[in-house]
Task: structure prediction
Amino acid sequence: MATTISVQPKTKQLVTRKSWNIRRRLGYILLYIFLILLSVGFFFPFYQMAIGSLMPKEELFKLYPQLWPPGGPTLRAYLLLLHIEPPTNMAYLANFHILRYVGNSLLMATVAVLIQVFFNTMAGYVFAKRSFPFKNQLFSMILVTLLLPTAINFVPFFILIGRLGWMNTYLPFWIPGAATAFGIFLMRQFIVATIPDEIIDSATIDGASQFQILTRLVMPIMTGGMVVLAILSFVGVYNEFVMSSLILTNPDTRTVQVALANFLKSNIRAPNYDLLFAGSVMATIPLLVVFFVFQRQIMEGVMSGAIKG
Amino acid sequence: MWRHRVDYLFISPFFILFLIFGLYPLLFGIQLSFSRWQPGKDMVFIGLDNYKTLLLTDPELKQALLNTIVMLLWILPTGLGGALVLAVMLNARKLVGRSFFRTLFFLPFVTSQVIVSFVFQSLLDKDYGWVNLLMGLVGIPPIPWLTQTFWAQISITLLLHWMGMGTNILIFLGALQAIDRELYEAAEIDGATATQQFFNVTFPMIRPVMLFMIITATIGLMNLYAPVVLLTNGGPGGTTLTLFMRMIQLMTSIRYGEGAGFGFIIGGIILLITLVQMKFLSSWWTVEGKLKQ
Amino acid sequence: MIHKSFNRRKFLKAAFLGTAATALAACAPQTVTVEVTRQVEKQVEVTKEVVKEVEKNVEVTKEVIKEVAVTAVPVELKGELTVWGHADHPLDNAGQAFMAKNPGVKFTFVGEDGWDKKVEAALAAGSGLPDMVWYEADATQVAARRGILLDVTEMVKKHESELVPSKLAEARYQGKYYGMPGDITPNNYWYRTDITEKAGAKDINPDIKYDEFLQLSKDVKAKTGASMYVMNSNFTGQGILPFLVPHYSLGGNVSDESGENIVIDNEIGQQAMNYAKQAWDLKAGLDADWFSPPYWGAIKEGKLGGTWSPPWMRGFFETEVTSPERGQGKWRNMLVPAYPGGKARCNVWGGATLCGFKTVKDPALVMAYMEYTFASIEGATVTGNWGIIPPYLPWLKGYFKLTKASLFEPTWDWTGQIVKALDQMRTDFYRLPAYGVMMGSLDKFGLPMLKGEKPIKDGMQEWGDYIRAENKKLLEAIK
Result:
């Protein structure tokens, strides 16, 4: 962990007008103590999940929770979930395919992201760099839809999905969200900030079509911004629960969130929290990987997305 | 217009999709909220009956509205206030490990509400959870985190904070870093204390961001559903029932018309709250001082 | 026709002989050793074993048993079946056994929480419904009134005399059957003898009165730290039995037979809530959410010494209570403690009906599965071994005795106690749509009364008014 600690370049521009007095040093010490304690608190749920998955079921939910399994960590929960170790007395496990559910979630989220990034960048580009009649009115209209509460549409939206025959498919997560107000807004902001008008103008003079400008010029420059949007929507779709729990009722199509939520109650006789934690770890790993690979982009995206709004 | 056909084509997906998946359900919802309907049966127009029933005789509406507002009053100040304080701390000039802390606080962003609920259930368990064990060490008697109204609301608050604090911190940090350092230096020269600096320099500069976040957080909380369902399922005795949950309840107890009407009532409440917030905090839209860029 | 010449007289004869065989088997030492395991394949074997053992012991039954086996084998069936219900389900076991018998059938059981919401969503969407669901009594009545269920009158009528009448009533609406009667729930009081022994007296007087029972609970709690009933501070799950049991026992109802008049707030209801409050005020109950990890933890640690319990609870208990230290083989069941003026010393909690939807692809296949599961010796054995009590009289009167339960004392006649409770069951108890409204609002209205924040009379009145209003809205909505 210590290796990730880095010094922000800005702190190098030391302001030495005032002496680095004791009171201030004390303040920093208190600050560190507070931040470290809080960090432990913030990290602890992750620890609980990870260590819980490595504990035998018997050790979980004992009167005194354990920080470390007394008999040493065991991979049994993972082996059981992955069907490597044959389950005894747990027939329901045979029908629980964690890898398929994670795969379903990844499929659902990846396709959703590809569609979203493309259409939102397209619209964002037009709103950022083109001028045409009613541009501002149309853009305002898009922003207004952001204020529409999801509650209003929930029931009828659902009926519509059924009438389209989209039950137990991923289409409800791909098509309606292909172009979103938030995405268009975000991409517009990024394009305004990063692509100078001159480049576009010169490309237009060279006779490039709008589609060529979008795919050959804007998109390559905009990769950073697209990654931000991609990750935000990836996390959103991957973790979606309410809609998917109602739409994906077939055991084969359900996502890992739905499967895990059901798994909690799917073994009423013996709530296997060890298996549940192991499943949770497996469900979270893809997102953690994405997070650590793109953490700069994500955090900058979140920071800049709001500040420019 | 024809000259700009490509532009319109490029932005058309949003509008086409909105017509189908936004506007059509909206209109259908309006029709539904004035009707009695259940799957497989004809829709019967019943005028304002659904709204009358909801507003006059539905005790859950009041309960859910009250719960949602109580939770809003818990979550908004502690969440945004806490995030702001933490952001100010992380913005301390000589802080080593800023990005470490920032990353750590932001890490819960990647977890799902489903999984977080499992973990919090086990952490907050009255007899078997870590939280009560640790509090027991300093002599605090076990707290019924999930089974008593007040504590259940606190538990939901904690869960939401854990998940969302990092994002809020980042947004505030972004806003703070955009403030010109010279402003602080000037204040320091004038002999302002850290607290004075916060109220006279920092806060006025980030008020627009704050307002933006208050409004979005309010809308988000009005749609609060999954964490509550998974953590307390509206219990104990319906005291953590949220508006959104009640709407789903109505729908699943076959009262579709009322469910649709409830959606519009929620929408109305959100609109009202947002307008009130905007009115009372209208001065917050403007920044006093100057931004870096 | 799936069902070949099914002669009821022969069947009853078989049942009688089965009983005789069982009785004989019980006399002979080391005869029937049926290993009850949760594994489905084994359960099919268990069924065969039971049949085999009976055959071995009593030559006479041979012929009849064969006939039972023949009648239970339907003509070749093909197709797919999907059933939704709560997870960990006897219907899954029955389905696996059904598949083993009919290789042409693909059976899928989807057991998950919130399946009822999914049913509603699928109904609204107009697609995505399963073939069958496991509806509680009140939900069956709601669905029947909505006209979404498959009419199975023809099939059920054939078995009318072989099924428990009170259960049949729950599947009936306007003279027609909209589902196969599922499990019956003649609830008992269970207690753990090693804990009562530790507290001083192993046996509980079979005629114990409610006030004596409370005193006993207090003593046991003081001496051993174990609770003799579940009363959680949420007033949910098993914690509601301190109210439901006296309510049933005293002759209470949520609504009358028409389902339109709410009577929960009458004197019986108030008295029942009074009894519940006594248990609450005693503070000797186990405060853990039903089936939560702490609940199971308490059972393993011997913190639960007794509880009102439906028979189906056994199925859930036995996977957790897996060693004598945890109470395996230490439990007994008996009639529930007597309430002054009480009519029935049992109650009903849970117990669902197997319903098909109107939209099913193959009604004949659906009915064949229903028939197999709850109107055949084989199906009843599979579901009975899981832990529920199928409503099939020929099975109940004979083979039921053969069902082994690792939870109860080996010498304890636990099935006899359930049969005793069965005889106590009321025929004037109605679980209509209003029952669901009651169950859904019990914690909300009950808690203030239990906590003493509201006088019971006022609280019950308020609750009654609420159920009245909600029931009206519900009946209106499903018209």
